[in-house]
Amino acid sequence: xxxxxxxxxxxxxxxxxxxxxxxxxxxxxxxxxxxxxxxxxxxxxxxxxxxxxxxxxxxxxxxxxxxxxxxxxxxxxxxxxxxxxxxxxxxxxxxxxxxxxxxxxxxxxxxxxxxxxxxxxxxxxxxxxxxxxxxxxxxxxxxxxxxxxxxxxxxxxxxxxxxxxxxxxxxxxxxxxxxxxxxxxxxxxxxxxxxxxxxxxxxxxxxxxxxxxxxxxx
Amino acid sequence: xxxxxxxxxxxxxxxxxxxxxxxxxxxxxxxxxxxxxxxxxxxxxxxxxxxxxxxxxxxxxxxxxxxxxxxxxxxxxxxxxxxxxxxxxxxxxxxxxxxxxxxxxxxxxxxxxxxxxxxxxxxxxxxxxxxxxxxxxxxxxxxxxxxxxxxxxxxxxxxxxxxxxxxxxxxxxxxxxxxxxxxxxxxxxxxxxxxxxxxxxxxxxxxxxxxxxxxxxx
Amino acid sequence: xxxxxxxxxxxxxxxxxxxxxxxxxxxxxxxxxxxxxxxxxxxxxxxxxxxxxxxxxxxxxxxxxxxxxxxxxxxxxxxxxxxxxxxxxxxxxxxxxxxxxxxxxxxxxxxxxxxxxxxxxxxxxxxxxxxxxxxxxxxxxxxxxxxxxxxxxxxxxxxxxxxxxxxxxxxxxxxxxxxxxxxxxxxxxxxxxxxxxxxxxxxxxxxxxxxxxxxxxx
Amino acid sequence: xxxxxxxxxxxxxxxxxxxxxxxxxxxxxxxxxxxxxxxxxxxxxxxxxxxxxxxxxxxxxxxxxxxxxxxxxxxxxxxxxxxxxxxxxxxxxxxxxxxxxxxxxxxxxxxxxxxxxxxxxxxxxxxxxxxxxxxxxxxxxxxxxxxxxxxxxxxxxxxxxxxxxxxxxxxxxxxxxxxxxxxxxxxxxxxxxxxxxxxxxxxxxxxxxxxxxxxxxx
DNA sequence: AATGAATGAGAGTTCATTCAT
DNA sequence: AATGAATGAACTCTCATTCAT
Lengths: 218, 218, 218, 218
Known about the structure:
The structure is a homotetramer of 218-residue chains. Chain A is 74% helix and 0% strand. The longest helix of chain A is centred in the middle third of the chain and has 29 residues, at 102-130. The first copy, chain A, is elongated. Chain A contains 10 helices and no strands. In chain A, helix 5 (67-82) runs antiparallel to helix 7, helix 5 (67-82) packs parallel to helix 8 (135-162) and helix 9 runs antiparallel to helix 10. With 218 residues, chain A is mostly helical. The first copy, chain A, has 2 domains: 6-69, Arc Repressor Mutant, subunit A, CATH 1.10.10; 83-215, Tetracycline Repressor, domain 2, CATH 1.10.357.10. The interface between A and B is medium-sized, with 30 and 31 residues. Chain A binds a DNA duplex (21 and 21 nucleotides) through residues 22, 24-25, 45-47, 55-63, 65-67.
């Protein structure tokens, strides 16, 4: 863990704009991510984090008032990144200009999220485990995702339906089927068979085709 | 929580064959399921469980040597139920006799798992949250599921592929796409929109059709 | 431990006169002696004793109101046996009749205590460990030993001093030197080198001679 | 107990070389020695120690991982002091130069151990009570004492035997008789009659003479 | 007489957090 | 900014003892 992790540079960049993080603080976050993702938030102790980070126990609480604040400081900024691809102002324009057909759109989204997951894997794991236990997380997630992403995503679905590229079913249902498939792809890749050889290109292809055939008119 | 929960009667039945559970023990398990599923294993305290169960804290440890043993006593028996539909001896015969086409097979599996999830929801939630943190669980799961279910499932896929009802793609890939879709259906139903109105019949239909179109030759 | 231990038959005999012990009670005492002597009183748990005795936890408390009562029921009766050799009415007569010289007296005492220690070893161990922590034990010991044994022992010392067989030094000092030597002999035999081969006859001889030379006029 | 005990200054000195003990830590050790020696290790509770030391219970465990570690930190360093008189490199030289006859040698040893016992009495008491129940203690004791002390002591015995000052009997036997007598002296002094008036000079004299007469050729 | 489930006080230990340095 | 000793509440677990059966 001596090389700098991708999620860390992201996190640094996010925080950088606000204020500098000290060396020790970086070490703390690094250790916290590792331990939280390995044992879960409640199963991790601040003293263990301090030890792995090579700082005194008190130092953690100089930067984060509570253990929970440390968790949130890790997980919250990742959420805005999560929804980044949809946070464009003129979504419909992008859609029309860049993605003439569903396939290209789906492929772009899938690859984009694949890279995102690859980069932020440990934090995503933490996020998914803790979201049921922390209202702040859930609320924050609902606000950003529900409002921003869902709206844009439905718009995209309707767009392609109008073009006759997707069959007519309720947007939430279409959304569910697409997201399930892509999430299943990511979970399989990163959780179930992380080490085994798998032909990524091919699997992406199968996955996109599956959605396409499943949702396009015959 | 004074009415008897469905998962409890199941659990009782499983244990009944071996030895009787006392009244207090039932109360303990009941309370533990509730609290574990609400706060996670590490976030729950035995004293809280004891209080909710209306027993002395020591009583818990009379029946379960450790807090973890209590967890396993709840989660482990559910695993065998999880794979029950595949634990038939002569699987191919059942396949041929009962399910002339993929659609009926998929529909049966989906509805069956839907009912299962409805019954065991809190325990499944506990299981899914704890499996990354407990080796015993992971091992046990791998042994039962990997060996039993995967094998049978692949057989079914090959069976329908030979009949020309499914397109030719690697069994693991086909499996992944199907399972993703069904799991996404269940997660949506029980976690994301548990209270909202949703037309279950219709959603099942959409889901099955999606898989069908996605995987059958045109 | 399935054969009946010598200290047990003694204990049974002592109690027999008062009341019968049930089978389970015997098992309890047997287990208690073993465990107390191995782990100390405070370090032993009644549940462990019950388990080793093959009885229910409650059964112990049917026979002994408290854990401590169980301890005392084991240790107390041994005390009267401890002082038995001195509990003769007409001690001086015995002395004159049976032991014409100190050597024979010392040899008799030593061998007698050796046999006693061999028989009651585990209980003696318990006794010696617990006496500093239990006032009842200490009081009881002082009353019996101080009053009975010391008095008689001093009498014997004076007796042999008058005869010129022992040099003139204060009885307590003489007593201390003799007892130290014999106790050292027993402790070596049973605690320090319990398993190693040692020529008992010879060691007894050395020990007696040592005391004799150390205390007799040249 | 507000004055500083002699054994404490010793213990501090031993540890000082390695690392400083905090004020509270000293208080903890002080309280632990008192309570362990009064009630035995298993019979003492950490909460009682904390209370007597005037610290929070958690503080104990900041300095000692377990209750047992606290015990060992008290008892172990005393063991090296116990054998100090024999831990001289050129033992035979010391023997020849400083102790021309057995009497002076025995007297020196006795007085030296008497002072040692006076200083470390509570810790010695703890040590002797706990040694049967803790393998680490027993092993450590065997290693240091058996190897170091016994060897040297036997050498001394042979030395005086060669000079004709001691009769020819097996070294272990001679050792046993001498140690028994001195230990008996110390136990009497500190355990049996701690408060009563006793003429120490005189008693030492009797004791030395007893060993001398008992073991020297006539 | 015997059981063993149940108890609740208290055991040893961990923990997030504070604070003087 | 950083330390690490100190805290005390809370944790898991053990124990001697009780009591309905």
